[in-house]
Amino acid sequence: MTIRLFLILGLAAGMLVADPQPQPKLLRNGLGQPPHPQAMVIEKLRRMNPEERERVLRDMPAGRRQMFERRLEQWNRLDSGQKKKLEGSLESFRTLTPEQQQTVRGLFRKFSETMPEEKRGDGRRMLARLRNMEPDERKALLSSPRAKARFSDSERDLLAEMAEKLPD
User: Fold this and answer.
1) 40: phi > 0 → left, psi -120 to 50 → alpha, else beta; which?
2) Model pTM?
3) 15 with 74: CB under 8 angstroms?
4) Coil, strand or helix: which one is 120?
5) Which of 106, 108, 100, 107 is nearest to 10 (CA)?
6) Fewer Cβ neighbours under 10 Å: the N or C end of the chain?
7) What digits encode the pLDDT tens for the residues 57-108?
8) Among candidates 32, 13, 149, 162, which has minimal Cα distance to 86?
9) How far apart are CA 159 and CA 138, in angstroms?
């Protein structure tokens, strides 16, 4: 189930629902209402025939077009099993309330923005372990010398928050 959650990350924060335009700092910090997400753009693009897709992409600003082309390429590189899992994860994500979806997006965005790239794999593995634990076990693991050596205080706090708030 944790793998599905990280697949949702790819969908929610990257492939399918991320707003390709940078958000103002006010919105990123949660101090304002987020704009309506450009949800399902990749899904719509991948369902178009090649001519329609090319026409839509051609009319986009260059940076936005490149981002969508890169994401379509990532999608096309997946095998059918991976695609099926991602589609299932997307369906699970869609069943969440808008507030829950925003929480999931925010947590994964924060993870992506604050967790150093070289620690993200360890962070994902730690999150998978934490999500299978009771709250007191999580606290003990995150307070362990090994966790303190691997993650900063703010990184451990984020992992604890994600383990608590992300849906099953």
Assistant:
1) left
2) 0.58
3) yes
4) helix
5) 108
6) C
7) 899 899 888 988 888 888 889 899 988 888 887 888 888 899 988 998 899 8
8) 13
9) 10
